[in-house]
Write a sequence for this structure.
């Protein structure tokens, strides 16, 4: 398996200083199942290319395994693609061969560490479970231009179709340290497999290598779960740390005065509760439920026979469980409510088939790609009769003291919409997914700028 990195930075030979590998030599690095070779096919002032070539010993690979992997078939440890593709073996080789660069050190030219450079990467055989869409979902948010060539299962038998193997070419302008951290994490995420046991130490590696970019990546939940080999408990711990600076719907606008904050939050929750009651919904899901304040109001209404709270933060769900005193509810009451951990940007059949859903101060925390994913999940797949959404009214911001143009109410908000912008978005959603929508102010309404919070109430036309 082969990885090449090419720099056109001037002088391009600076790449060799950053990687701490002399271009006139062939370097050899011992890895657990073979050797990694580092060499330079071209070095000039205008272009420099370094190659990382892995030579995996298939026999050693089998001997190293304590038992069969058990995923596909009995002979998998003898017949597999591991010696020939970019996988977690490649990640292990990257961190061992280029450890100095990954740790942000350069002895001879330390100033280069923080310099963004035009870099091109080629992976000759990358296995991708999920196809082209997964590669784009992982690399495009990081600014990469992507060129993919998918390989057929057998060129002599085109009717067999395409394989899951790609030649991947990536280009971006960034630091070498950033590039290596992206490759280190995302190569095994594409493959959706690892050759070694996953434990607490692996979670720490993910946080160490990804902390500068993973918390803001729109696919961070997907990356975390795959990198940790679908070990949900570890993934939950990692997400807690990654999301420590994010907020749930319980965290209020930083610019609102404390008394006003408490009042508008209560008014907002009561308004959403009233809309769900008036919709005659019997089953309700609170998406981004946070610490469960809306859930408490819904539990008090006998109309709701089934209540589901979902949040990406496992810690918030633990707090919600404690505040709702679920362990002290009567069996009949306990059957009405359930808390689940999940992402709003991936289809989840557990939230499908409910009468109604509420998203209270949630959408403004999503960037454009994740908001687009939520739209489809919520309005296309969940098949909800009613959807209640609240979000800040950006026009009201000028009423806050010390307000600066363009300032948002919280540092995690990705956007804040005016009433016209919110209605433009809602009208498009309604038209695209066959809903009717009405807009309502939440809280005291200013004659010029409207209310502090705005609400959209969607109802499917099929129910009318």
């Amino acid at each position: 398996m082969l990885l090449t990195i090419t720099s056109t930075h001037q002088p391009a030979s600076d790449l060799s200083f950053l990687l701490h590998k002399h271009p006139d030599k062939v370097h050899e690095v011992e890895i657990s199942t073979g050797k990694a070779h580092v060499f330079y096919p071209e070095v000039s002032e205008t272009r420099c290319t370094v190659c990382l070539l892995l030579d995996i010993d298939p026999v050693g690979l089998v001997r190293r395994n304590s038992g069969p992997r058990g995923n596909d078939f009995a002979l998998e440890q003898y017949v597999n693609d591991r010696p020939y593709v970019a996988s977690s073996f490649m990640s292990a080789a990257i961190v061992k061969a280029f450890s100095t660069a990954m740790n942000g050190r350069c002895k001879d030219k330390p100033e280069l560490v923080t310099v963004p450079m035009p870099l091109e990467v080629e992976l000759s055989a990358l296995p991708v479970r999920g196809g082209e869409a997964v590669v784009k979902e992982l690399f495009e948010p990081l600014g990469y231009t992507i060129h993919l060539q998918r390989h057929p299962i057998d060129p002599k038998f085109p009717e067999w179709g395409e394989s899951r193997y790609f030649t991947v070419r990536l280009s971006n302008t960034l630091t070498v340290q950033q590039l290596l951290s992206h490759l280190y994490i995302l190569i095994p995420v594409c493959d959706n497999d690892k050759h070694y046991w996953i434990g607490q130490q692996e979670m720490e590696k993910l946080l160490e290598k990804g902390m500068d970019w993973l918390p803001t990546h729109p696919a961070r939940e997907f990356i975390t779960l795959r990198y940790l080999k679908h070990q949900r408990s570890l993934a939950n711990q990692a997400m807690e740390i990654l999301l420590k600076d994010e907020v749930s719907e319980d965290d209020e606008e930083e610019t609102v005065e404390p008394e006003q904050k408490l009042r508008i939050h209560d008014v907002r929750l009561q308004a959403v509760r009233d809309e769900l009651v008036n919709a005659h919904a019997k089953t309700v899901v609170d998406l981004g439920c946070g610490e469960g304040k809306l859930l408490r109001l819904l539990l008090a209404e006998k109309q709701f026979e089934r209540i589901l709270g979902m949040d990406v933060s496992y810690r918030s769900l633990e707090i919600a469980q404690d505040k709702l005193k679920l362990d002290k509810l009567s069996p009949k009451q306990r059957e009405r409510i359930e808390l689940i951990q999940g992402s709003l940007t991936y289809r989840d059949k557990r939230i499908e088939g409910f009468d109604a859903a509420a998203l209270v101060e949630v959408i403004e925390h999503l960037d454009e790609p994740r908001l687009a994913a939520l739209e489809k999940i919520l309005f296309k797949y969940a098949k909800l009769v009613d959807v209640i959404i609240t979000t800040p009214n950006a026009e009201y911001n000028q009423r806050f003291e010390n307000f600066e143009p363009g300032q948002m109410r919280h540092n995690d908000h990705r956007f804040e919409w005016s009433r016209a912008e919110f209605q433009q978005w809602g009208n498009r959603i309604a038209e695209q997914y066959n809903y009717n929508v009405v807009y309502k102010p939440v809280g005291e309404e200013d004659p010029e700028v409207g209310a502090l919070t705005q609400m959209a109430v969607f109802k499917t036309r099929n129910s009318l």
